[in-house]
Amino acid sequence: MKSYVRIISRLLAALPLAGAALPSLSAYGQVSAEQVLNIGRNVLAMDDYVLSIQYFNQAAKAKPYMADPYYYRGLAKLMLEDYRGAEADCTMAIERNAYKVEPYRVRGFARMRLGRDSLAVGDFDTGLRYSPQDKYFMYYKGIALSQLERYAEADSTFSLMLRYNPRFTEGYTARAQMHLMTADTTAALGDISHALQLGANELAPFLMRAEISMKRADWAQACADMDKALILSPREGDLYVNRAYARYNADDWTGAMSDYDYALALDPENRPARYNRALLRFQVQDLDGARTDFTKILEWDPEDFATRYNRGLVNLELDNPRAALADFQVIARRYPRFYPIYYAMARAYQDMGNQKAYTDMFFKANDLISKYTDNPRKFQLDRPTIQRGRSDERANSAQKREYGDEESVEEVMDAFTRLVTISQKDETAPAFGDKLKGRVQDVDARVEPEGFYALTFVEPVNELRPSYNYFRELAEINREHWVSAPLYLSPHPAYSLTSEEAVSLFAYAEGFAGMEGSMRPVDYLARGVAYCSLKNYEAALSDLDKAVTANPDFVSALLQRAYVRHALMETVRSEGAGTGLLPVAGERAAYEAILADLDKVLELDPNIIYAWHNKGFVLYNAGNMQEAVKCFTQALQRNADFGEAYYNRGLAYLSMGDKARGVADISKAGELGVVPAYNLLKRLK
Question: 652 and 620 in contact (C-beta within 8 Å)?
Answer without folding.
Answer: yes
